[in-house]
Amino acid sequence: MECSAAVKYRPAPAVPLTLRKWPEQVITRAPQWCAVDLRDGNQALPSPLEPTIKRQFFQRLVALGFRQIEISFPAASQPEFDFTRSLIEEHLVPPGVTLQVLTQARDAIIDRTFEALHGTESAIVHLYLSTSPAQRRLVFGKSREEMIAMARQGAERVGRQAESRPETAWTFEFSPESFSNTEPEFALAIAEAVCDVWKPGPDRPVILNLPATVESASPNHYADQVEWFCRRFSRRGEVTISVHPHNDRGTAVAAAELALLAGADRVEGTLFGNGERTGNVDLITLALNLRSQGIDPGLDFSRLDELAECYQSWCGLPVHPRHPYAGELVYTAFSGSHQDAIRKGMAAQRPDQPWQVPYLPLDPADVGRDYAAVVRINSQSGKGGAAFRLERERGFAPPAGLMREFAQAVQRHSEAVGGELPPGAVGDLFSRLYFHPPGPFALNGFHLLEGPEGVILRADLTRQGEPWSVEGRGNGPIDAFLDALSLPWRVSGFEERAIESGNDARAAAFVRLERDGNPCAACWGAGVGESIVAASLRAVTAALNRGNFVTDS
Questions:
Q1: Among 64, 246, 389, 524, which is most exposed with the fewest C-beta within 10 angstroms?
Q2: Of the candidates 233, 222, 237, 116, the residue with the CA atom closest to the CA atom of residue 179
Q3: What residues does each domain of the chain span?
Q4: CA distances from 273 to 246, 260, 302, 323, 346 (A)
Q5: CA gap 264, 251 in Å, rounded
Q6: What pLDDT, on the 0 to 100 scale, is given for residue 25?
Q7: CA nearest 232: which of 22, 14, 17?
Q8: Got the DSSP string for 49-97?
Q9: How far apart are CA 387 and CA 340, in angstroms?
């Protein structure tokens, strides 16, 4: 018989923290960043990165702005060792960039690690030791005291190796691996023991990394653990507190943000959250979360689509369409009400004002996206979405009454094709329905004379395929045109737009005609021309065609 959940699983023990301060804190600046894609992310791939790809990945991380990059576990394999050597020997590490490497607390592995780093200007040696009760019991078979002795021994070996290589600027890092599953007092004790050996100070920089190696509790629990540790560590002002959240519960980004509130200075993670099991904290999401709050993350994700393509090619892993900030669909609205709000927000947004577009917490342009895909059209879309697409595809927004009518045609068309309308389809549909509807009339040319009693208009048309010349008088071109045609239609709505700027500007006109003064028998038409008169007469012709033969397909 299987155990019930209440028996099989135990809740995370409460952290003995009172008067916690992190809920009242506010993040005001970006943390130090360390990208661990080339080590932690690489070991999580079914096919590890080839050396050439790994080098390209390293160079991309540098270009993005990362200044601390964990590149390898040099003692784990010859390819890892050789890659580390190649970056150093071929002088591929730019000034200001520090290599970080991982090592277990074992003498031979530590020695091999320092051998791999020979000749580098600066490096972070990341020493780790698993500290959770399950690891101590099942993996090491050691007591707390024995584990502390092992950590001290590893720290001493790291210190001696560094002293023998004074040409390199060394930073030491220690991780009580599985910190999130370790008793708080034991994690504190083993970190104190390591720092008793390393004696951190201005000339001996030390990082204490507190990993959520397995995310086993809610983000606030992790924040409690970090704050509890920061309050009690005796050398808090002399060390950098780092966090390395994993994503087993799907809350690594939240855990990292709360850990920063709780006192952490630094975050280790990967692009797009790659890593063992459900992955590491996604540094792209975390950095752009900060940007959306007005905090410069110090990392450049302005070409995010290009980065996603490289990542997918290198790692063989997809970027989900709904991945925060980077997914294909994350700036896209299909819902009519969302589209309407986005359209109005975009129209009201000014370059010198804070970003306030509904449903878009970040300006897509900040990550290299244009606005073409912000609104996409299917049967769920509405008037606002159709108007937005029409503005983007054809450069104008029709009058509200015409837009309501056209939106229904767009919806019917989308339902007929059975899915999303491709780029350009909305503009093409508008042209078929309103600029060039089928019908008996075609305007071939016109001549306008202005006199003291109004205007005289002579027009050359084709009616039912036969030439037709007419002349009319009126108080304006449209009035004169309708007088010339002697048809039972009158104008009940007219608007004009400029659809280009500069010397090549053209005009668009939108005309609503009513038959015999009956508002229930009305048709819209649209026209474009080099002048507003030409556009208006073409719009009237289109409306007459729709009045004689209206089609919505």
A1: 64
A2: 222
A3: 20-315, 336-424, 441-548
A4: 9, 18, 18, 10, 31
A5: 17
A6: 98
A7: 17
A8: PPHHHHHHHHHHHHHHT-SEEEEE-TTT-HHHHHHHHHHHHTT-S-TT-
A9: 9
The Cβ of residue 18 has, within 10 Å, a number of other Cβ atoms equal to: 6
Return the CA Rg of the chain.
34
Lowest mean pLDDT among 216-225, 264-273, 498-507: 498-507
In CATH, the number for domain 441-548 is 3.30.160.270
Mean pLDDT within 96-120 = 97
Q: Name the percent of the chain lying above pLDDT 90.
A: 73
Mean pLDDT, range 499-515, rounded to an integer? 77
**pTM for this structure?**
0.79
More confident site: 166 or 414? 166
Q: Which residue stretches of 103-218 are H helix?
A: 107-116, 133-135, 144-163, 184-198
- CA–centroid distance for 4 within its chain: 40
For residue range 522-551, list pLDDT tens digits in order.
Answer: 899 999 998 999 999 999 999 999 987 433
Angstrom distance (rounded) from CA 43 to CA 40: 6
Amino acid 219: pLDDT: 98
Among 47, 60, 81, CA closest to 272: 60
Cross-strand partners of 177: 130
Question: Which residue type sits at 483?
Answer: D
List the single range of 91-100, 128-137, 372-381, 478-487 with lowest mean pLDDT.
372-381
520: three-class secondary structure by DSSP: strand
Given this model, what pLDDT does residue 373 score?
63
Mean pLDDT across 397-413: 84
Query: How many helices and strands (H and E) does the chain possess?
Result: 17, 14
Tell me the two tokens of residue 155: 């720290």
> Residue 399: which of 507, 494, 491 has the closest Cα?
494
> What is the CATH architecture assignment of 20-315?
Alpha-Beta Barrel (3.20)
